[in-house]
Amino acid sequence: MNFEIIFQKHKILDKLDLSKLPLPAIAHVVVNGSLNHYVVVLKVTNSFVTVMDPADGKIHKKILSEFIKEWTGVIVLMLPSNTFSKKDERISTYKRFWLLLKPHKLVLIQAFVGAIVYTLLGFSTSLFIQKLTDFVLINENYRLLNLLGTVMVLLLLVQVLIGVYKDKFLIKSGQQIDLQLILGYYKHLLKLPQQFFNTMRVGEIISRINDAVKIRTFINDISLNLMVDVLTIFFSFGLMFFFYWKLAIIMSLCIPLYFFVYLVLNRLNRRTERTVMEQNADLESQLVESLNSIETIKQFGMETHANAKTEIRFVQLLKTGYKSSLNSIFSITSGMFLTQIFTIVLLWKGSYYVIGKEITIGELLSFFAIIGYFTAPVSKLLQSNKEIQNALIAADRLFEIIDLEREKFENKVEIEKDKLGDIIFKNVSFTYNHSIQVLDQFNLNIPKGKVTSIVGESGSGKSTLINLIQKIYTIQDGNIYIGKLDLNYIENSSLRNIVGIVPQKIDLFSGSIIENIALGDYSPKMDLILEICTRLGIINFIEELPNGFNTHVGQNGSVLSGGQKQRIAIARALYKKPEILILDEATSSLDSKSESFIQNAVAILRQENKTILIIAHRLSTVINSDKIVVLKNGKILEEGAHETLYDNKNYYYDLWQAQLPKRNINLEYI
C-alpha cells in the first residue's frame, strides 16, 4: 500500500490536537457513556468535526466540544511511506460520460444538428415581426404579407419535422444508453464477490438502477439541450448587437446576476440532492427488508414497529424533498424575475430610442422577440442545475459499485472430471469481514468417492467450509486443492458446474417446478427430471399439484411447504449430475420416509464414485458416513467412523448424548 500506519495517544484533548493531524484519520471514541467505537475524522474546523460513522455508513457533522468529550485521545493515522507515489487512479465523471456517449455519437450528432436547425428556424419569428411592422403594415403591402405568411408556414412545417426526427434520435440513443448502463450494472453485480452482498442492503443496490436512469437522462436529454441552449444564447446575443448595440449592452448586464444565481443553486442542490438519494435508498432498503420478512413481522405482531421504522424514513425523505422543492421554486422564481425585470427595462429604454428615431418600432419588437430566445435558455440553465447535480451524484453512487473488484477470472483453468481427486484443505485461514476468525491454519482431507460428514455446534465453521470449496469466499492464507489443482487457479463457473449443493437457506425462483429443478437449462431433460423425482420419492406430491410439473411455485416457493422446497432443492442438485454433492442440513425439514429416499440417493452416488459432503446437526443422518469430522470453533477435535468416535466417548459422544440421551443407537439409516 506504500502507507505507514501510526497509532497516537493524546493526553490533552483540544482542537489543536485534531487540527494538526493529517486527515483522514481513525479516532477511538466512547459513545453512550460506555460503548467503544471508531469513526473516521474527515475535516476539522473551529466549531465542527466532520466524521464518517461505519455504524451507519453516513457522514455526520458534530460540534467540536461534543466530539472531544467522546474522543479518548487514541487516533490511527495513515501516512505515505518513502516509496509512495501520488497518482489519481479514478476516472473522472465527465470522462465516464464521454465513454458512454462515444458509441452513440453518430446518433447524438444527428440529434444535435437537428436541434440547432430547429432552434435557428425559431429565430425567423423575430424577423417576421420586424418585416411585418416596418414594411407590411405601414405600406399596406398585401403581396409581401402573403409571401411572408407562406414562408413562415413552410418554415414551421420544416421545424416540426426536424423536431420529430430529433426526438426520434434521442429515444434511440436513450435506449442504447439504458441497455449499456443498467444491464452493464446488473452484469457487474453478478460477478461481484459474496462479501459485497453481505455488507450492502438490497434496497441500496436497487436504488443504483434509479441512479442509472438519472445519468441517462442527463447524457441523452439535458446535455444535448444544454449545448443547444448555450449556442442559442450566443447566437441571440449576436443578433441583439445586429439590431441595436446599445440595448445589447444593457442586456449583457444581466449575465453576472444569472451566474450568481446559478452558483447559489449549485451549492444548494449539491448538498440536498445527495441527501435525497441516500434517504430514498434507505427507505427502499427498509421496504424491501420488511416485505421480504412479512411472515416474521406477522408472527411477532410487529406491524406497528415495522410501520414506525418506515414512517420515520419516509418523513425524513419528505423533509429533504421539501428543501429540494424550495430550491426548485427559488430557481424558477429567480429566473422568471430576472427575465421580466430586464424585459421591462429593455422595452422602457428601447421606447426612448424609438421616440428618438434611433430605431424603428419593428426593430424594437424584433429585439423583444430575440430577448425571449436569450432569457429562455438562460432560465433553463438555472433550472437544469438540479438535474446536473443529480447526474453527478448518481454517477458517484453508481460508479463506486462498478469500480469494485470482481471475482477474478483471468489466468484460470477449467477443471476436468478425470483430474478430480480428494479435496484438501492445507493450512487454511479465513476471517469474515476481516474481523471474525473462523479458521486458523486449518487442515482437512475429504476423500474422493466417499461420504464425509461434518458435525459440530452452530458457529463451528461447517458452512464456511462449503463456501470456501465453491469459492463463494476467498481464503486469506493457505491452499485448497481438488486433486492436484489449486482452487485459486480453477475458473469459478467450471468449479461450480461440477458441484451440486442443497443449502440451508433454499431459494426457489418464480417459475414452474421444471424451471426450478432444471435451473438455467433452456431445454430441460424431462426424462432425467422424472428419473430423479422418482428416485427421491417426490413424483407423487408433484403430480398432485394443480398443474403438476408446470405448477408455478410463487415467489421463493411460497406455494410449497418447507419439506417440499427442500426436496425440490435436492432434485435440483442431482439434475446437475455433480461430481461433488454438498448437503447442508438437507434433510432437516423431512420426515423419516422422505429422508430414507435421500439416503438411498446418496448411496447410489457413492457407488458412482461421487464425492459427498454432508453438513448435519441431526447426528442420525451421518451414522453410515465413511468419515465423520467433528468441528468446534474452527478446529478439528476428532475424525473417523461413527463406531470409533462413539466408542471413544469424547466430544462426538457428548453431542450424541445431548441429542438422544435415552435412545439406543441404530446403526442403519434412520
From TrEMBL:
Signal peptide region: none
Keyword terms: ATP-binding, Hydrolase, Membrane, Nucleotide-binding, Transmembrane, Transmembrane helix
Membrane topology: Multi-pass membrane protein
ABC transporter domain sequence ranges: 423-658
Entry GO MF terms: ABC-type oligopeptide transporter activity; ATP binding; ATP hydrolysis activity; peptidase activity
Compartment(s) of residence: Cell membrane
Transmembrane segment boundaries: 106-129, 144-165, 218-237, 243-265, 329-348
Domain of life, source organism: Bacteria
Pfam families xrefs: ABC_membrane, ABC_tran, Peptidase_C39
Protein's GO biological process: proteolysis
Record-annotated ABC transmembrane type-1 domain positions: 109-390
Gene Ontology cellular component list: plasma membrane
Protein name (Swiss-Prot/TrEMBL): Peptidase C39
Organism: Pseudotamlana carrageenivorans
